[in-house]
Structure formats: C-alpha cells, structure tokens
Amino acid sequence: MHLCPGALNRALRKARKDTISVPTVNAVIATSATDPLTISTIERRELGPKDVRIDIKFAGICHSDIHTARNEWKGTKYPVVPGHEIAGVVAEVGSEVTLHNVGDRVGVGCFVDSCGECAPCKNGDEQYCEKGVVQTYNSKTYEGEFTHGGYSQQVVVTEKFVLKIPEGIELDVAAPLLCAGITLYAPLKKWGAGPGRKVAIIGMGGLGHVGVKIAHALGAEVTVLSQTTSKEEDGKRFGADHYYATKDNKQLFTDLAGQFDLILNTVSVNLPLDDYIGLLAIDGALVELGVPENPLQVAAFALLTNRRSLSGSMVGGIALTQEMLDFCAEHEIAAEIETISADQVNEAYDRAVSSDVRYRFVIDTATLANA
C-alpha cells in the first residue's frame, strides 16, 4: 500500500504515540457549556519528523472561542482548549523539518492540517479543504483525535501550518492577526481594495479595527459604519476617512446610497441587510464575516439593482496568511490589545460579550507556568 507523505507522517505520529509518553502542559480548559473555564493539564502529541513544537507566548481571545466554549454553535466536544491566535517561539523541530528552526518567532492560526491533495489545498485555499480542514481546536484530526488550541504552554503543529512572524511585530500584538488579521485581509485582497476603491467596514471591534488599518494601508478610501460614534477618534487614528453612526439614522442610508465598492460586515448580529446592500455601487459586494444567530434575509431586488453581490469569507490559506503578516510588518500594523493572565479568561469572556474591550484580549501564557 502506498501512503502519501501526509498520510505517512500521520501514521508515524500514531506509531510514536503508541510507544512514547506524550508531554503534559498546563492549559485553560472548557469542561462544559455552563461551567467556568479552569486551568488544568493536557497532553500534547510527541514530535513527529515533520512537526514543530512551539512554546506559546501569547494567545488571542477570538469571539469564536467564546461561542465554542459555551457551545453556542453546538458540536463542542468537551473538554476543549480554545485559542487559534497563537504566537510563540520554536522550541523543537522534527528530524525532517526544513521550514523552521529552534528559536524562530512563529504563529499558528485557525487550522493545523488539511489533505493537501484536493483542488482548494493545491490552490492555497486550505481553509476550504474538501476533505475537511482540521481546525486548531475542537476539531477531529484525520487520526480521529480532537485538537486543543492555544490557551496553553505548548502546541505541536505540522511545519507547513506554522507561520513566520516577521521582525517588527511584537508577539503579543501579532497573535490576533492570526485570525482577525487574515479574516479581514483575505476579502480585502479578493475584492480588490486599493487606490480608487471605497470600502466600508461595519463594526469596529476586534475584527473591524484591524480591517480599518489594513484597508487604509492598501490605499482604499475607508468608512466605518458603527452603531455610535464612541470609537470615532480611534477609527480616524487607525486610518478611517469617514465614520458614521447607524443607530436610529435612516437618513444615513439615503445619503450614502450607491457609494461603496466593498462592504465588510464584521458583526455577528442580524442587520437589515437590504439597507446596507443599498449602499453598494454597481457591481459592489457585501461580504459577511461575522456569524449571526439567525439566517440572513435579503430581498432579491436589493441584489438585482446595480448587479450587487452578497458573499462570505472565512480566513485565508497559509500562503495568504504569511503574506498578511509580512504586509502588516511592512506597514507597522498590529492589533490593539489588552493583555490578561490565564486566570482572567472567564472575566475576559464576559467583557468581550459586553463589548468591553479595545480591541482584543490576549493571554500571557507565561502565567500558566505556576498554575
């Protein structure tokens, strides 16, 4: 029987695990949908020939972590360690690793494996792997185990799915770029944000504030559409050319009708999409990035008029994520963060749900050492 390199590597990993004890590390763990997260230990797999062991220094808190820990999207398998915004330093490499060296500054994003053989994988869109991409946490591996994420001291990841964090970006502010950064960079590149293009970003939270910075650096004319003007000063500082409050402001949708080439919706609530689609110019697109609780509703004529599009986007492939990190380093783009200790995660979750953070919580995983 012939095994492809990926399958062979996975088989070797399984064989090693059967004969060698696996390392134990401290981690922040969700044990049920209702109980607080606690600090305990988990086992990481033994290093395989193509694997990289990373000492995690910082882990960003994404709203997806909260949805998963609280089983709001259903399907959470407990216990689970959230976290897919991981920044750290290479501690050890497998015997066949060529892409990374001990001491390298690296990151891990939303997924840690894919089949490598389907058309999306070959095109650099591993996130859309036809076999099913292996998410960084709460995801079944091809060997049938479940992954644990970055709220921990270490992680072991196949070298292809480890990103290089360029000099010029500190690890703490780089961590959120592994999800928030690529989530915004991917559609901005896909839909051609740049000079002469008008881009609107709905919401200026953990996702939106990074999007404003990136869209501005790409050369687009950037507008923020937020419920209130409470973050207007920040928005202008991040690069927004215009900032509008949408709450109870129907006239705004008349005044701005037909103006934008691209609108990115970063909020996870059900908006009156017809109103926002009406802001698009001919051939404009509104791209959903957040995940509302209820199905989207839109009138056909909102799209038919001006040949508008409603689309969606989910992070980006490994090559594009590396491009994003390099772009952010070149343009001095970083997430705005509040650093917390591992024992503050539950409080941070509640504050994030209440939008009481500017703009992303990041866990200093050194606080796990003596937990």
Description:
Keywords: Metal-binding, Oxidoreductase, Zinc. The protein is built from twelve helices and 17 strands. It is α/β, with parallel strands linked by helices and 371 residues long. Helix 7 (232-238) links the parallel strand 11 (221-226) and strand 12. Helix 5 crosses helix 6 and helix 5 (180-190) packs across helix 11. The protein is globular and about 60 Å long. The model is unreliable at 1-6 and 15-21 (pLDDT under 50).
Average pLDDT level: 93
The string of secondary-structure elements, in order, is HEEEHEEEHEEEHHEHEHEHEHEHEHEHE
- In DSSP terms (H or I, runs of 4 or more residues), the helix count works out at 12
User: Count the strands?
Assistant: 17
- Beta-strand content bin: 15-25%
Amino-to-carboxy terminus distance: 47 Å
Structural class of the secondary structure composition? alpha/beta
Main sheet characteristics: 7 strands, mixed
List low-confidence stretches: 1-6, 15-21
From the spread of the alpha carbons, the general shape counts as: globular
Radius of gyration: 21 Å
Q: Percent range for helical residues?
A: 25-40%
Q: How are the SSEs placed, and which strands pair?
A:
Elements: H1 5-19, E1 24-29, E2 38-43, E3 51-60, H2 63-69, E4 86-93, E5 105-108, E6 111-113, H3 119-122, E7 134-135, E8 154-158, E9 163-164, H4 171-174, H5 180-190, E10 198-202, H6 208-218, E11 221-226, H7 232-238, E12 242-245, H8 250-255, E13 260-265, H9 273-277, E14 280-288, H10 300-304, E15 309-312, H11 318-330, E16 337-340, H12 345-353, E17 360-364
Parallel strand pairs: 10-11, 10-13, 11-12, 13-14, 14-15, 16-17
Antiparallel strand pairs: 1-2, 3-4, 3-8, 3-17, 4-5, 5-9, 6-7
Helix pairs in contact: 5-6, 5-11
